[in-house]
Amino acid sequence: MKNVKFSIVICTKNRSYDLNKCIESINRQTYNPLELIIVDASDNLSTKELVEHWKNKLSFSTVYISSTPGLTRQRNTGVQHCQGNVIAFFDDDVILEPSYFKIMASCFDSEAIDGATGLVTNLPRETMIKRAITRFFMLTGGRKRGAMKPSGFAGFVDPDLADPIQPTDVLVGNNMLYRKSIFDHYLFDEYFDGYGMMEDVEFSHRVSKTHNLFFIKDARLVHTYSKFERINLTKHFETTIVNHFYVFRKNVRQSFMDWFFFWWSTVGIVIQCMFWTIKTKNLSAIKGVYKGHMHILNLNSSLWLACNENPNPHSSAG
Question: What is the mean pLDDT of residues 78-94?
Answer without folding.
Answer: 97
